[in-house]
Amino acid sequence: MARLALNYTTDMEKAMQENHGVGFAEYEKSLAKRLEIEKKREKSYRNGLKIVTDMEQKVHR
After folding, report:
1. Residue 55 within a domain
2. Tens-of-pLDDT digits for all 61 residues of the chain?
3. HEC per residue, the chain
4. Domain that holds residue 35
5. Residue 49 C-alpha from the chain's centroid
6. What superkingdom heads the lineage (predicted)?
7. Cα–Cα distance measured from residue 25 to residue 17, given in angstroms and rounded to the nearest whole number
8. Is residue 42 a part of any domain in this protein?
9. pLDDT given at position 6
10. CA 51, CA 5: separation in Å to the nearest integer?
11. Residue 48 and residue 7: Cα distance in Å, rounded?
12. 22-28 long-range Cβ contacts below 8 angstroms, 24+ apart
């Protein structure tokens, strides 16, 4: 499998380590790790959308 050509900063690397326990080098070379992380991100994103929707409904009552 080809490696990803990712450009990232030290702050992005730090955030990846803190949030997912891996660095970009491992993220870049491991499809399984990438899929795991992206599933978590998608779940978090959907939860955030639900919270926003719920708050908007409460505000507009």
Report:
1. yes
2. 566 777 889 999 999 999 999 998 899 889 999 999 999 999 999 999 999 999 999 998 8
3. CCCCCCCCCHHHHHHHHHHHCCCHHHHHHCHHHHHHHHHHHHHHHHHHHHHHHHHHHHHCC
4. 31-61
5. 15
6. Bacteria
7. 11
8. yes
9. 73
10. 34
11. 26
12. 28/3, 28/4
If we measure between CA atoms, which residue out of 25, 21, 19, 30 comes closest to residue 6? 25
User: What is the Cα 21 distance to its own chain's centre?
Assistant: 12
Domain total of the chain: 1
Instruction: Decide if 37 is inside a domain.
Output: yes
Global pTM value: 0.74
Predicted confidence at residue 60, as pLDDT, reads 84
pLDDT at 37: 96
